[in-house]
# Entry
Amino acid sequence: MARRIHRIFIQDKECGRKEVFAIEPVNLWFGSSSQIILETFVDVLKTNLSFKQFENDNCLMHREDDLGTVTMVIYVDDCLMIGDKKAVIHAIEEIKKHFEITHSTEIDEFIGCKIERDKNQLFLSQPDLIKKLMEKFGDEMMKLKECETPASQGTHVMRPMSEEEKLTEEEQKIYQPGVGSLFYLLKHSRPDLLNSVRELSKVMDGANKSHMKILKRVIKFVIDTQNRKLILKPNLDVTKWEVKGYSDSDFAGDTDGQKCISGYIIYFQQCPISWRSKFQKSEFIFDRGRIHSGIGSCYRDSFYQVNAGISWSES
# Structure
């Protein structure tokens, strides 16, 4: 059967307000009105429309009936529906009875990511976010030389000593949003920024001049490489789904706490779908401890992806 993808925005008919209503796999804080709309929306999907939540992720929902299967991804104020054409159209008409929605059959952007298609591959990028960085930092970036990497090899950010001079309050207001924008970039389309942003995020509450210098270099790198895109080209020549994870750890790479740093990336059908770089919670004297900790983090994320795939196939 033919497949159709819909993007929908939901607004509660009764209260008439546009509010954040979605659930993410991480803990989020919501205002009371937003939480009410969220709970109402999910309750209607489950109680009135027979949708079921995936066991390991409440922001994924699915329904199967005589018309086919519909899977819904809920992310903040965006919903993405994927499924059999007739089943998707029927689900949208049912949702309209309870909520005011707008929807589109052509998806060229989702959660701030530009989506481009070319045969059996997708290209993800975030040009709007990079444009905002250029508008805010562009003039300063013109004075910096072009670099091939976001940071120098072995760059580590150390928290300032109590007597060290920190950024002014106004400069700190520039530093924090700058790191936040980079974090959103690496989360969806630029995993090459992982190590740099991890280090910069250590001093969100009190950076100094040297940290600002590192931040500007990363932003300069992003602007110079703004045409880079994350390529998703799945392997379609296999009979079974394939999930692979690669993990690595260093030894006491954190110059502040002497903790090890782990990193991993997970591929699904040869497409990168999850990546992370973080400080390990404990200090390890022996290599075996740090290696096992890094592998464990990779395994937990892989296990989540596998369970999501199982729920998808069973739906």
About this structure: Residues 125-224 form one domain. The first strand starts at residue 3 and ends at 12. The chain is about 35% helix and 25% strand.
